[in-house]
Amino acid sequence: MSTETVEEFRLRARAWLAEQMPRLEDRDPGLDDPENDRASWERTKQLQRILWNGGFAGIAFPRAYGGLGLTPEYQRAFNAESGPYEMPLRINIPTLSICAATILDMGSEQQKRDRIGAALRGDELMVQFLSEPKGGSDLAGVVTRAERDGDVWVLNGAKIWSSGAYAADYGLCLVRTDWSVRKHAGLTMFLVPVRAEGVTIRRIRQVNGSTEFCEEFFDDVILPADAVVGEVNGGWAVASRQLYWERTSMGGGSPYVSGQGRGAPAAAGRALWDLARSVGRLEDPKVRELIGESRANHLVQGALVRRVTAGLVGGHLPGPSASMTRLFHAETDWRDSDIRLEIAGSAAVTGPVGQHGAGEVSELSLNRQAGSLGGGSTEMARNVISERLLGMPREYAADRDVPFKDVKQGRT
Amino acid sequence: MDFDLTPDQKLFRATTKKFLDTEVPLATVREWADGPDGFARDWWARGAELGWTTLLVPEDRGGGSVSDAGLLDLLIVAEEMGRLVSPGPLLPVNTVLAALVDAGGHAEEIESLVCGRAVGTWAVYEPGRGWSPESPGVTATPTDEGWTLSGVKDRVEAADQADLFLVTVRAPEGLTQFLVPRGAPGLRVEPLWSLDLVRRFGEVHFDGVAVPAPALVGRLGAAAPLVERQRQIASVLQSAETAGAVDRVFEFTVAWAFDRYSFGRPLASYQALKHRFADSKTWLEACHGIVSAAGRAVQDRAPDAAELVAAAACYVGSRATEIIQDCVQMHGGIGVTWEHDLHLYLRRVTVNRALYGTPEEHRRALADLVIPSEGVSA
User: Is B339 on the interface with A (CB under 8 A)?
Assistant: First the structure.
């Protein structure tokens, strides 16, 4: 096994996929209806179990925690072969590529064994409890608190923008445990069981009808001491690693992602030429330029991801370089959304009753900014690139080196 | 520029850079702008000695590469030349060499181009027409001794400096190419003006130019694969040069943003400007990434080479002018003066954007590649 080359592995994966994995065209289209979200998550776990049983789960995760311990090239080879099959794409972000990756880097031996193993087996899903209702980009300014009570911690506060929390089992939750020190120094990361007593989940309805994002309220949630990931008051180091993996995932450079794409709804995956044909504009040179432009953007994005990944691995580029792939990904998304609208023209916004046709592209466009908000806003990415790659002066922060309890939290 | 250059490539890069820095600094480029040729022949011959003309030619035909990937070695030169808006017919000479090597024969001409004694160029564009190398209007009519060429080529790089013209024509049998010497009776060059200070172009008239059988490059009527190879080589070299030019401009504009103070603080401290620098930095790295990917694909003659080359050409071509124009804006008024070097770079990338296919032409070419292949599976 350890002597198997990437090409041998690829061939074995190809044969196994053909035999064991359901074909994409056979996927129940009802699963992609936001109404059937729970069923979609269950299906995700089922598919992950097939991968696990076949010995193709967690290709780049260490063997000790249930993975295959192979290099990312093997995962990429597997992904390249997986295109025609129904893959558990929804487990990639955040469960495997962000949460499990962070636990692997920062968690205790027990946490690695339990959580990574369960995720790879398709038994558990994870979620990120980072953003709070009072603010998103200023992550280190969280005010959800955990207080020590004897051997346990008591958690109170609220989190928001967690994706699929209702279907998840554990959340990586960044909270404040010391208010007397500057803001980055008083944070701790916890692994919170989503179904623990005192956790209330509310689903948020988005403009595209999706109710995937959630808001959570924590009321006197009791957490054991071993729920701490990393060090007490060392939560920022864990969160930084988590943000690194988030940028890497959002930019398409994660070694832990299995399959192609992020589980986007079918309409987003519809080829531009197919859209152009449906509105009778496939021969329009301007439309063909737009189709070519989109293809170029995607090819360039792939090349940038490979460049940044190689640069990070070889030590030629600093860690924050992943912000470039994150920013580029958002730009490609924006441009695709705009291109779809340009091609569809008025067919995108009105048409015969009962025939939605090209209308799906305008519905999608309402969610255009999601790709530049989720995973840290592109404005933050630009700050990171200018400050940490180009070395430009940092933005003024009124809360720098001030005990957090003295930092203003609002106008009053 | 790839991160994983071999030690030999690193040395080659350093040697090339040093030679360019010493021999053709920007002051020299400005000086040569006033000359008729835009470069000095003896300087070019010395560049050839450094390897600028050998990299695409196998050792047994008088060439030799630095690594086992000659085109990637050549991209290093192109990028370094972009960083200094260097003169010299790097692109046309190497495009012609790539064709001659693939076609076989023409040993003497290859030798003269490799040693830098002769300059060769690709006569491909035609007046009033866009980028369509595969459908030339210049014709080759068979005669008893060979063929007669008739028609006009334009936007021919280094036309007035060239000794050899690789001409893409339509013969009765189909797409064909000939190598025609400058002195051939009936061949006439009319210089054209150029936005670039040291890069010259010309119109080449073929008024019944008689060419003998040995002038044929490759097979009669079967030049399509060769022409495709030439357009890929030319395009990726041009993209690499542009990426080098943008890299250098971005570098000195970032430095400027640190040095220049307004309202008591450096330009680099303003978020409105920092965010634009972040965009440009990202686009610049993307340019390097796609040039590497395209270069590797052309080197390997990979099936997706045409697609990657087109993606590089349209992305790098359009981003380059956008980034450098924004660098002009960052500089303020000094950026639009003759004295500042910015316009030398802006000229070069604007010329590169427009030749060997515009971004718009490359996008339509990409659509042609995308639509049938995906259409079949639908």
Answer: no
How far is Cα B120 from Cα B110, in angstroms, rounded to an integer?
10
User: Smallest Cα–Cα separation from A188: which of A174, A198, A199, A201?
Assistant: A174
Could you give the C-alpha distances from A206 to A241, A262, A366, B17, B347, in angstroms and in order? 29, 18, 10, 55, 48
Alpha helices in chain B (DSSP H): 7-23, 26-32, 41-47, 70-83, 90-103, 107-114, 224-259, 271-299, 305-331, 342-354, 359-377
Q: Are A164 and A120 in contact (CB under 8 A)?
A: no
CB atoms A385 and B278 under 8 Å: yes
Residue B320: list chain A partners with CB under 8 A: none
**A95-151 tens-digit pLDDT:** 999 999 999 999 999 999 999 999 999 999 999 999 999 877 889 999 999 999 999
pLDDT beneath 50, residues of chain B: 375-378
Query: How far is Cα A327 from Cα A305, in angstroms, rounded to an integer?
Result: 11
ipTM score above 0.90: yes
The answer to whether the CB of A119 falls within 8 A of the CB of A126 is yes
- Supply the range of the domain harboring residue A185: 128-235
Counting one residue from chain A and one from chain B, the pairs whose CB atoms sit within 8 A come to: 142
- Say whether pLDDT at A267 is over 70: no
Residue of A nearest to B273 (CA): A386
The closest of A334, A330, A312, A311 to A374, measured between CA atoms, is: A330
Asked if A292 and B310 come within 8 Å (Cβ–Cβ), the reply is: yes
Collect all residues of chain B within an 8 Å Cβ-Cβ radius of residue A296: 310-311, 314-315, 362-363, 366
Q: Are residues A76 and A140 in the same domain?
A: no
Classify residue A406: in a domain, yes or no.
Answer: no
- Fold (CATH) for B7-118: Butyryl-Coa Dehydrogenase, subunit A; domain 1 (1.10.540)
Contacts of A310 in chain B (CB under 8 A): 3-4
- Partners of A305 on chain B (C-beta within 8 Å) are 289
Q: Are B364 and A285 a contacting pair at CB < 8 A?
A: yes
